[in-house]
Amino acid sequence: MAHVSSLVLSAVSLQPPVALAPLAGITDLPFRQLVASFGAGWVVSEMVASQEMVQAKPGVRERAELGYDQAGTAVQIAGRDAYWMAEAARMVADNGAAIIDINMGCPAKKVTNGYSGSALLRNPDHALSLIAAVVNAVDVPVTLKTRLGWDDACLNAPDIAARAQDAGIQLVTIHGRTRCQFYKGAADWAAIAQVKNAVDIPVIANGDIVDTTTARMALKLSGADGVMIGRGAQGRPWALAQVAHELHGTVAPVIPQGAALVRMICTHYEAMLDFYGVELGRKVARKHLGWYMDDAQSAPALRREVLTASTPQDVLRLIPDAIAGQVAA
Ligand SMILES: Cc1cc2nc3c(=O)[nH]c(=O)nc-3n(C[C@H](O)[C@H](O)[C@H](O)COP(=O)(O)O)c2cc1C
To answer: In this predicted structure, what is the pLDDT of residue 6?
Structure first.
């Protein structure tokens, strides 16, 4: 099997090699569009449960929604059954996903108890059968996102990555923690080097990368080909573009401040209400508004007011003051 050694997967360019991580409940279409508007190599959808996707369980297909202008979106699918994984892959590819990413890293008990996500690290043969089913089902590149292993006694990511490569996976992202670490401790970027040494396909380092300093250190210790940033982009959708600029010389993002930041946040808020409808949109938006206000060091009383306001109109009226100490126009 021919292996790719640059960040071009079957004609999909992943430049600059700085990606938005999938974050369930967070990297929805409005947030991915916002991050992409500043600049990102590619963005990854929230995990989509394969069987639920195919069977159109309420709310599941929205997670894979692409928008018409999203060229660089990977849709991430999760599951434990080769049939449903292949069907879901076909469906999202037909909908225009540029890349399909397989989730083999989610540590949540409700996912691992279903033998999906990182539970697959304990059953590599089964994991490989899912990978083969997805690769064979679609023409778009298929990538894999996983962790270092299940626990410290089972650090099998290098072996799985090598087998995945032979099965046709074109890129692997490694979160530098084990499943049993969940999100505790620090990501071990040096351990990702063992995966890099085991494969020829591009390897992306992930975990605790929040800025150019951490990105540079992760790349140095892992030897990886690129970085993936998740929580570091919360409240800072320009973070990837800034890292890409400082590491790869792409155009510097104009980081909004003052009135421009207020406008960006209000537009993101309205996009969430449009996408989800007002009731669900307000709930999803609270997380983002909280992060924006953390970053802007909003006064605690104003923060509370924004997060407890009873109507979207009130939220939009309060944001300027909370973010930039401005009076609403
Ligand atoms: C709230 C939350 C949701 C996540 N959802 C997913 C997911 O759907 N699929 C996945 O592969 N990883 C998921 N992750 C893991 C992230 O993609 C990433 O690997 C992890 O957060 C480490 O990167 P970071 O330190 O840059 O956030 C999630 C993490 C968090 C905190």
So the answer is: 57
| Catalytic, out of 106, 154, 180, 266 | 106
Compute and round to an integer the Cα radius of gyration of the chain: 20
CA-wise closest residue to 39 among 65, 14, 62, 64? 14
10 Å Cβ neighbour count for 297? 9
The pLDDT-based confidence of 217 (bands split at 50, 70, 90) is very high
pLDDT digits (tens, 9 = 90+) for 128-180: 999 999 999 999 999 999 999 999 999 999 999 999 999 999 999 999 999 98
Question: Six-digit token pair at 108?
Answer: 């949540």
| pLDDT tens digits along 275-298 | 999 999 999 999 999 999 999 999
> Which of 231, 236, 287, 291 to mutate for ligand 1's pocket (most ligand atoms within 8 Å of CB)?
231
Instruction: Read off the pLDDT of residues 73-87 as tens digits, 9 standing for 90 and up.
Output: 999 999 999 999 999
**Buried b / exposed e across 216-235, counting CB within 10 Å, b at 16+?**
eebbebbbbbbbbbbbbbbb
> How far away, in angstroms, is 1 Cα from ligand 1 center?
30
Backbone angles phi, psi at 43, to 5 degrees: -130, 150
Helices (H), the chain: 29-38, 50-54, 60-63, 82-94, 109-112, 124-137, 157-166, 189-198, 212-222, 239-248, 258-276, 278-295, 300-308, 312-324
Q: Are the CB atoms for 15 and 171 separated by under 8 Å?
A: no
* Contact residues of ligand 1, CB 6 A cut-off: 21-24, 26, 46-47, 76, 103, 105-106, 145, 175, 206-209, 229-232
> Is residue 154 flagged as an active site residue?
no
Ligand 1 atom with least separation from CA of 47 = 8
Report d(CA 132, CA 135) in Å as an integer.
Answer: 5
The Cα–Cα gap between 18 and 78 comes to 23
